[in-house]
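thread: overnight batch results

M.L. [08:02]
morning all. the overnight job finished for the chain we discussed friday. pasting input first so we're all looking at the same thing
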Amino acid sequence: MESGITVRAWHAHAKINLALHVTGRRADGYHMIESLAVFTRFGDRIEIELADSDGFSASGRYVSAVPLDDSNLAVKARDALRKQAGPAQTPPVAIRLEKNLPVAS
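M.L. [08:03]
and the structure it wrote out:
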């Protein structure tokens, strides 16, 4: 683990759709949409810090719905980045999620 590196943290703001219209379907099965959305001051928080080994932990009001294994999207993103960039460019990290919003809300 390198010294002098601080924790990086991000706030994932909740989004409220004021209007949402499905306008069609793409060839890959996804829907085309038009939406009008606003973001709130509420949301989840994620922190990433260099560590001696990879880790993932979660806390918060809605933590019971968060998978703590390799099916977690944060863990999948870390692993995909490591696969693409290589282990030398992606050292072990501790990922901490504070889950303040319901899953899929």
